[in-house]
């Protein structure tokens, strides 16, 4: 009877994880499209990060106090504080700034597709820190290397084979056609470079986040703290760079700001917390499986709302990226029997 209850509970948990990750990717896709529109109105990316970070922290702090207070350590160590600072800087300030700059110069579909590189990059980072088995003679290691290379080729094809003019909305296309194509193409490549650098930061951030959850198993609390810290760091950065903290455009009215607070703070914050919990339960690679869902949703919404169409070459690059992604995940899933020989940190990072 006990075994049956345990099995049933595990199935329910698996269903919650799978269903929740699907919903989370759809919500994140909608937010990416919304942010692309807000940035096109002249919003300052740093200001969006500050608003979203503060809203997310304030929204989830009461839940963290109610649900995770017993898990808090009696004393915060220096190591844990350093981890919080790095997570806040990497996951909030640097990652979001790079992604927002990339979204502004490309499209929501491209911005949603690029993070699918993260499993391969996580493998590289983990292997460098000897948290991932690296054996040239092992077929699964070779498969992960090959999958990572295919992902990178797909990302390059997706970036270089897309026409920036054809992917823009009809209004922007009309305004940009008289200009030279070189400047537009340069901005496109620059945007893709921002997205790629953001994914590198995301991979480092995910590895650090998973390691932190081992010693601090309170995802709501961690996200609340790091979101507020990241918002503060971002506000300081904006003040240093611009001499003021400003939204960036008079077109950003109270209605749009409310949307940023509700979507960026509440819905997206909830998705981040849920994904953090899933990382603690199953590891970042499982969470990465659902990345293509966000890409598809973003592409559909962009096409329906703004008329942004991906080229055949860019779609082919996405297919290559997804193929490489699942090769990496297939290789990792077949190494599951090795997890028992490793410590808890490795399980949380790479399971």
Automatic annotation (TrEMBL):
It is found in: Membrane. InterPro entries: EamA_dom, EmrE-like, WAT1-related. Residues 21-159, 190-329 form the EamA domain. The chain crosses the membrane at residues 12-34, 46-67, 79-103, 109-131, 143-165, 185-208, 220-241, 256-278, 285-306, 312-331. It comes from the Eukaryota. One of its GO terms (cellular component) is membrane. Its main location: membrane. Keywords: Membrane, Transmembrane, Transmembrane helix. One of its GO terms (molecular function) is transmembrane transporter activity. It is a multi-pass membrane protein. Pfam families: EamA. Belongs to the drug/metabolite transporter (DMT) superfamily. Plant drug/metabolite exporter (P-DME) (TC 2.A.7.4) family. This is WAT1-related protein. It comes from Leersia perrieri. The lineage of its organism: Eukaryota, Viridiplantae, Streptophyta, Embryophyta, Tracheophyta.
């Amino acid at each position: 009877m006990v075994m049956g209850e345990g099995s049933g509970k595990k199935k329910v948990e698996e269903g919650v994880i799978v269903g929740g990750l699907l919903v989370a990717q759809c919500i994140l896709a909608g937010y990416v499209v919304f942010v692309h529109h807000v940035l096109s109105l002249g919003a300052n990316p740093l200001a969006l990060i500050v608003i979203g970070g503060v809203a997310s922290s304030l929204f989830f702090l009461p839940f963290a106090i109610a649900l995770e207070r017993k898990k808090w350590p009696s004393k915060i160590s220096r190591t844990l504080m350093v981890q919080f600072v790095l997570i806040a800087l990497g996951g909030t300030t640097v990652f979001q700034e790079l992604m927002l700059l990339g979204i502004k110069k490309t499209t929501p579909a491209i911005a949603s597709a690029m993070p699918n590189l993260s499993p391969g990059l996580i493998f590289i980072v983990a292997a460098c820190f000897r948290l991932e088995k690296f054996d040239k003679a092992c077929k699964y290691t070779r498969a992960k290397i090959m999958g990572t290379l295919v992902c990178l080729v797909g990302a390059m094809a997706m970036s270089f084979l897309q026409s920036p003019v054809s992917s823009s909305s009809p209004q922007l296309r009309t305004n940009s056609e008289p200009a030279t194509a070189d400047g537009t193409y340069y901005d496109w490549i620059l945007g893709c470079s921002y997205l790629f650098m953001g994914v590198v930061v995301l991979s480092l951030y995910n590895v650090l986040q998973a390691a932190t959850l081992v010693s601090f198993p309170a995802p709501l609390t961690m996200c609340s703290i790091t979101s507020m810290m990241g918002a503060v760091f971002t506000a300081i950065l904006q003040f240093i760079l611009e001499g003021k903290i400003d939204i960036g455009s008079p077109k950003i009215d109270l209605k749009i700001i409310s949307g940023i607070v509700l979507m960026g703070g509440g819905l997206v914050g909830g998705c981040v917390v849920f994904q953090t919990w899933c990382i603690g339960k199953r590891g970042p690679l499982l969470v990465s499986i659902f990345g293509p869902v966000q890409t598809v949703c973003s592409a559909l919404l962009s096409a329906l709302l703004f008329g942004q169409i991906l080229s055949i070459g860019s779609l082919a690059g996405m297919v290559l990226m997804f193929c490489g992604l699942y090769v990496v995940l297939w290789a990792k899933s077949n190494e599951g029997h090795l997890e028992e020989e490793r410590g808890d940190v490795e399980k949380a990072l790479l399971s």
